[in-house]
């Protein structure tokens, strides 16, 4: 087993791995260095919100941090409110509380067992993987560990091309919506807010700002102009007879065929959600079958449709959005952002309309970029990831989906695999595709903990 391990990242994936390692009661003491990057350890960006308007998009019964304790989150929530049911969509704030509680419990057990855990409230400056271990550098300290794990979540958002420097400098164009929401204050003044993107992040932004700013109106622009689909009011089980569909997809790994097969399966089902959910356990193996050209085709033409049916929102969230639309406060439109400039204290946007209808110019008091996860290692400003890529320690996924890695999470460079350098979570999207939600992350954490604690072959 590895005796010294560094976990780099402060969110849910890092917390899950830390807790899995400490809960195993390894026979020898561990030395764990957890570089949390500042902020509240375990919550990360995803669960750092304190707003009760921001709900989980998975029912409470499916959100345990541990595979071995599948009701963990539900039991935690019910200790505070016995009326909570497993089918409820609860606030993400509460899930952040649960993660913090689990980490505190794991750290207490570690002290009792004699493990040495350092919770370091800063980011690693550099990581140098080698054949027999990894060196993690922060300031003047060089820590040599047996293994290191990147668990940094999504990369910092980058402004879209066409956004002028003046627009960015004005403070009226927001690229990091979560930092903005954390600082937002009630404001009765009317204002026009434009959102670029219509995924779950856009939904959270609209819900929060529409409450804080009762006179604001919202224009949401995306290539399709569609909101994420909602969950059903009542839970539905995945389709039990998906074997034939999965086998047909395996036999013909191309996107056009897969779309046809899915449409046929949906037409024969009582609800399309059961078909989509039945694919979830098989998504990584199906993704692995796709050649690069087909993966690229999926990203260009089908990704948006998959995301809105796969990552759904709570029914009560959809009801709130429909109310805003009926009140005339939320408008959705199709288009692609071409340029953003600033003049006279306002932003001026050029939006290319669909079907060759030309370019429309519109004004906004504020623009919030809500285009979802950034996983493009090739263009990131994240200091550690840039260091790793510049020094050739990692290979960026050619489609911008994190890092090239094995299915077990071992990072690769120049066609070679590091034996002691791993990733977990979002950076594995190019390898696994389904690698960002808690059900997948907790399984990755369990598997990686098994690997790290397994006897090492001499």
What do these coordinates show?
This protein has 458 residues and is α/β, with parallel strands linked by helices. The chain has 15 helices and 17 strands. The chain has helices spanning 12-23, 72-80, 92-113, 165-169, 177-183, 200-212, 243-251, 255-267, 272-279, 283-289, 292-310, 315-326, 383-390, 429-432, 438-453, and strands spanning 4-8, 31-35, 116-120, 126-130, 133-138, 141-145, 147-150, 173-174, 192-196, 217-222, 330-334, 336-343, 346-352, 359-364, 366-369, 410-413, 416-423. Strands 3-2-1-7-17-16 form a six-stranded mixed sheet, with helices on one face. Strands 8-15-9-10-11 form a five-stranded parallel sheet. β4 (126-130) and β5 form a beta hairpin. The mean pLDDT is 95.
CA distance, first residue to last residue = 11 Å
| Tertiary shape | globular
Per DSSP E runs of 2 or more residues, the count of β-strands stands at 17
Biggest sheet features = 6 strands, mixed
Structural class: alpha/beta
Tally of alpha and pi helices: 15
Report the β-strand fraction as a percent range: 15-25%
What does the average pLDDT come to? 95
Low-pLDDT segments: none
Strand order within the widest beta sheet: 3-2-1-7-17-16
- Kindly provide the radius of gyration, computed on alpha-carbon positions and rounded to a whole number of angstroms: 23 Å
- The share of residues in helices is 25-40%
Brief characterization of the structure:
By secondary structure, the chain is an alpha/beta fold. It contains 15 helices and 17 strands.
Features:
globular, five-stranded parallel sheet, alpha/beta, 17 strands
């Amino acid at each position: 087993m590895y005796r010294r391990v560094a976990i780099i990242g402060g969110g849910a994936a890092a917390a899950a791995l830390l807790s899995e390692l400490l809960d195993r009661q390894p026979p020898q003491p561990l030395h764990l260095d957890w570089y949390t990057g500042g902020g509240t350890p375990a919550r990360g960006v995803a669960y750092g919100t304190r707003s009760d308007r921001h709900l989980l998009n998975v029912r409470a019964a499916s959100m345990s941090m541990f595979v071995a304790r599948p009701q963990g989150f539900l039991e935690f929530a019910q200790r505070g409110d016995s009326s909570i049911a497993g089918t409820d969509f609860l606030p993400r704030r509460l899930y952040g509380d649960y993660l913090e509680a689990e980490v505190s419990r794991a750290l207490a057990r570690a002290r009792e067992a004699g493990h040495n855990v350092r919770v370091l409230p800063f980011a690693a400056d550099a990581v140098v993987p080698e054949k027999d271990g990894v060196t993690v550098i922060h300031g003047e300290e060089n820590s040599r560990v047996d293994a290191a794990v990147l668990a940094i979540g999504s990369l910092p958002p980058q402004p879209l091309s066409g956004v002028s420097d003046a627009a960015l400098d004005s403070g009226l164009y927001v690229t990091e919506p979560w930092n903005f929401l954390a600082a937002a204050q009630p404001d009765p003044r009317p204002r026009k807010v434009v959102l670029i993107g219509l995924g779950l992040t856009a939904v959270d932004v609209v819900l929060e700002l529409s409450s804080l700013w009762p006179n604001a109106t919202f224009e949401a622009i995306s290539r399709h102009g569609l909101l994420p689909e909602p969950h059903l009011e009542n839970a539905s089980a995945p389709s039990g007879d998906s074997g034939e569909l999965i086998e047909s997809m395996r036999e013909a790994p191309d996107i056009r065929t897969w779309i046809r097969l899915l449409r046929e399966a949906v037409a024969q089902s009582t609800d399309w959600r059961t078909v989509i959910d039945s694919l979830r356990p098989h998504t990584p193996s199906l993704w692995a079958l796709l050649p690069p050209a087909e993966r690229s085709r999926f990203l260009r033409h089908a990704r948006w449709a998959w995301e809105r049916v796969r990552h759904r929102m709570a029914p009560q969230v959809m009801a709130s959005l429909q109310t805003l639309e009926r009140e005339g406060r939320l408008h959705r439109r199709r288009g692609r952002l071409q340029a953003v400039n600033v003049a006279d204290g306002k932003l001026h946007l050029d939006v290319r309309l669909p079907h060759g209808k030309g370019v429309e110019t519109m004004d906004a008091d504020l623009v919030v970029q809500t285009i979802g996860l950034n996983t493009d290692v090739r263009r990131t400003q994240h200091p550690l990831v840039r260091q790793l890529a510049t020094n050739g320690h990692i290979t960026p996924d050619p489609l911008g989906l994190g890092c090239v890695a094995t299915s077990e999470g071992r990072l690769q460079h120049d066609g070679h695999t590091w034996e002691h350098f791993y990733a977990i979570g979002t950076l594995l999207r190019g390898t696994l595709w389904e690698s960002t939600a808690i059900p997948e992350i907790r399984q990755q954490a369990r598997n990686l903990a098994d690997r790290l604690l397994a006897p090492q072959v001499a």
